[in-house]
Trehalose-6-phosphate synthase (Streptomyces pluripotens), 498 residues
Amino acid sequence: MDTPRPGRTAASDADFVVVANRLPLHLDTTDLDAPRWRRSPGGLVSALEPILRTRRGAWAGWAGTVTGGAHPALPDQDTRMHPVPLTEDEYRDYYEGFSNATLWPLFHDAVVPPDFDQSWWHSYLGVNQRFAQHAAALAGPGATVWVQDYQLMLVPAMLRALRPDVRIGFFLHIPFPPPELFLQLPWRSQIVDGLLGADLIGFQLPGGAENFLQLVRRLRRGEDVSRAPHASVLGRVLLRDREVRVGAFPISVDAAGLEDLARSEPVRERTRQIRRQLGERRRIMLGVDRLDYTKGIDQRLRAFEGLLAAGRATAQDTVLVQIATPSRERIGHYRRQRARIEARVGQINGAFGQVGQVPVHYLHTTVDRSELAALYGAADVMLVTPLRDGMNLVAKEFVAARPDLGGSLVLSEFAGAAQELTRALLVNPHHPVEFQDVMAAALGQDETEGRRRMRDLRHHVRERDVHHWAHSFLAVLHGGSGSVPSGPGATPQTADVA
Ligand code: GDG
């Protein structure tokens, strides 16, 4: 008999619940009198949607507005979506503060100094508790709950306290830092205890999983931590009453979907148009990033400036298109980063451009998915050069969008993707001379060699797509070893994840 528990309602019948900071929907308030829900497509949602559909699924997350007022009803096809409200203060303290000015920089090598603030921590605690309550209310008896990312690291333990019957997975999308960095965090033990509420903790890379296991050994001496690598699982933490598995599950993209888009006639026509507009004979370099200090946009611009200054490229023969998507704009480090980048673009165009021909096209905007695919198709060189990145989906999207085998990928060693995409041209973005050399090598790459590399990269991305990622995580969460057959034909393993 199913006994009522705190936070549960009569409607709590979902078999599979995703808990993420954001819903894959947002409220479009362009018309303030008639706000409307719109879909925010992305890799995570395309991987999880089939599972949400075939099992009684639900997704709990913030809808992206702090209006506080009542939301309009969700469209019929989206009734599995459950908005978790945030107040204006929580947005500032939990989201901009603790999540993005404490955890984000700390977990990215402290590229900028993290701020530690007690009131942000309190807000993080309160919001995590609310997410745990929503998840507890949605989950049916014995359901599977998959918690996503650094904003919600306390949810696994909070949820377990409310609902010991559910199976809990946690996946971290950003890097997990070495213990000596993590230990700076004043609330380090609470975060580790929060994560250990899960049955399976997934990281992007084996290195992140190893960092976490080492940390647990240091912080919780009584516990038995064993390293027992088997497929995706790298180790286990034996708690008094249960076991937590720790593994690496590199995320990926909807490769088939992107390839279809890239092959569509409107996208191909737009690619040709972009090439004509930028100059048929010019080589096109492309960067696509959220405007974040971890993405290395500034270093990339400086390397390009170096090439121009040395005469290894000119505005007549080369152009760099940089899409910088607006992100976290109220946070000081982000505002300063934007100012630095825009000043650098002005400087480069001022020094090396001429009327009608500038070397850098900088767009501080979000473009739609088709435009993005067309840009990927137009690029001779894709520059993905973060200083630190959990994975980096842009690198994998570029590869998926090049069925013509054209274009070369310059990829930072410090992106998680570099561990898989070893046939890219790898670069240390901190090394200005090497950066310029690799850029020049990519611009001058022999076509046959480029096609060979692209074929290998594509083989990898198509085999290890986002469906493979979701199914291998869920297979381990349900007791498997994590070795799921890969490739487009191997998609839904619903028997495995049921
Ligand atoms: C975190 C981790 C990890 C960007 N501009 C536009 C646009 N995008 C899309 C890209 C890509 C996504 O945003 C960015 O993904 P990344 O992986 O590059 O970076 P983060 O946002 O930092 O993501 C990262 C990821 O989580 C997943 O686990 O890989 O390491 O930091 O999909 O295409 N999309 C459209 N217009 C744009 O202007 N349509």
Notes: The longest strand covers residues 139-148.
